[in-house]
Each structure stands twice: as structure tokens, then as C-alpha cells.
Design a protein that fits this description.
Layout (H helix, E strand, L loop, with lengths): L2 E5 L2 E4 L4 E8 L8 E6 L6 E6 L6 E3 L7 E6 L4 E6 L8 E7 L15 E2 L3 E6 L1
Parallel strand pairs: 2-11
Antiparallel strand pairs: 1-3, 3-8, 4-5, 4-9, 5-6, 7-8, 9-10, 9-11
Length: 125
């Protein structure tokens, strides 16, 4: 029922910044917790960030805390991930996700009902 489309990925040098966007369609996501996951080369998918439906509560993986900021604009049905101080280890396909029930904190374990196709972020050294 919900389609998610990520954009904003690309090639950036270490220390640089990128802003990812995820536009939802099909229905409003204003009541859904949302989040970001990533899968690097030779790695399993891992949790990056999650945000409550209203944006009041946010969670981050230890590896990105202090560098990445997750936000949302429910009026635009859009989720964002601002990535600063990028490191080569951040290289991955980044996926947008939404959960139709439950709290945002549960997304830390990978729980989600809808997934985007991903956008590639490559950080060069």
C-alpha cells in the first residue's frame, strides 16, 4: 500500500556530506514510524536511524550518532537523512523503510513493513 523511493545518493569524498530523501506514495505515512537501513559491501543489512511518526523521538546506530540526522516532513510525505562527516565505512546502499504499527524503537531490530529500492552512497578516501 505504501511505495517508498529514495534519492540523493552519490559519490562523495571522506568528510563530505549528503542528504538522502525518501518520498512515500500510495497513502500518507504521517502515522508510521520511519527509518533508514544500509547494506555495505560484503555486509548484512544494518539499522541506521529511525524516527517516530511525529518526529519527536529519534534513534541512531552507534556508528552514525553525532554525524547523521534523521528528520521528516509529514506534509510532504518525505523522510530525510542528513549525513555529515562521511567515512569510507559509510559506503553502502541505503534503504528507506516504514512500519505500519509499533513504535520507532522497534525498527532498531530491523522491523519494517515497507521498503524502498535503495540509493547507493559511495565515500572515497
Amino acid at each position: 500500500q505504501v511505495q517508498l523511493v529514495e534519492s540523493g545518493g552519490g559519490l562523495v569524498q571522506a568528510g563530505g556530506s549528503l542528504r538522502l530523501s525518501c518520498v512515500a506514495s500510495g497513502r500518507t505515512i504521517s502515522g508510521y514510524p520511519m527509518g533508514w537501513f544500509r547494506q555495505g559491501p560484503g555486509k548484512e543489512r544494518e539499522f541506521v536511524a529511525a524516527i517516530s511518526s511525529t518526529g519527536e523521538v529519534r534513534y541512531y546506530a552507534d556508528s552514525v550518532r553525532g554525524r547523521f540526522t534523521c528528520s521528516r516532513d509529514n506534509a510532504k510525505n518525505t523522510l530525510y537523512l542528513q549525513m555529515n562527516s562521511l567515512k569510507p565505512e559509510d559506503t553502502a546502499v541505503y534503504y528507506c523503510a516504514a512500519r505500519s504499527s509499533g513504535a520507532a524503537v522497534t525498527m532498531r531490530g530491523g522491523g519494517a513493513d515497507y521498503w524502498g529500492k535503495g540509493t547507493l552512497v559511495t565515500v572515497s578516501s
